[in-house]
Design a protein that fits this description.
This protein is an alpha/beta fold. It has one domain: Trna Endonuclease, Chain: A, domain 1. The chain is built from 5 helices and 8 strands; from the N terminus they run αββααβββαβββα. The chain has an 8-stranded mixed β-sheet, with helices on both faces.
């Protein structure tokens, strides 16, 4: 455990990995466990893990995380009950809840991605960012945005 912790610390200090803490939305506090790590270079991830054809969603999540950092947000992972929100992005008085997915077309995927955002009982912006989505741009006040549109937008 100490060796692994030392390696992770070295990767964090060298800015190869970034750690994201988990935030309990209802308890309004950071959790000590179950954070995530994002790698700066997805190519390095592919080199280390090999090409896993079904990992588009994870790679997209990684890209969105770094784009949020680039835009000046502080980023955490949200926990609401047993559900997870991919990102809580905060900047001064602004807060956004963001889910990231490869595809929103299947009804079960749509339900899975919308459920955590629907469970949050506040009025901050809620968005799902998807690579592929044939849906309208809004479901119950939750914005549905294509990944390329998000990445090319100024906001």
């Amino acid at each position: 455990v100490q060796t692994i912790s030392a390696y992770i610390d070295a990767l964090l200090e060298s800015y190869i990995f970034y750690e994201v803490k988990r935030f309990d939305i209802k308890g309004k506090d950071y959790l000590r466990t179950l954070g995530k790590y994002y790698i700066v270079d997805p190519g390095l991830r592919t080199y280390l893990l090999g090409n896993r054809g079904g990992d588009v969603g994870h790679i997209l999540e990684n890209i969105v995380y770094f784009e949020l950092l680039r835009r000046g947000y502080e980023v955490a992972i949200g926990k609401v009950g047993e559900k997870e929100i991919d990102f809580i992005a905060t900047k001064m008085n602004e807060k956004r809840y963001i889910q990231v997915t490869d595809n929103m077309n299947a009804p079960e995927t749509r339900a899975r991605e919308l459920a955590p955002l629907q469970a949050v009982q506040d009025n901050y912006e809620k968005t799902v960012i998807a690579m592929d989505c044939d849906l309208i741009s809004d479901v119950d006040g939750i914005k549905i945005v294509k990944a390329l549109d998000f990445l090319l937008s100024e906001v």
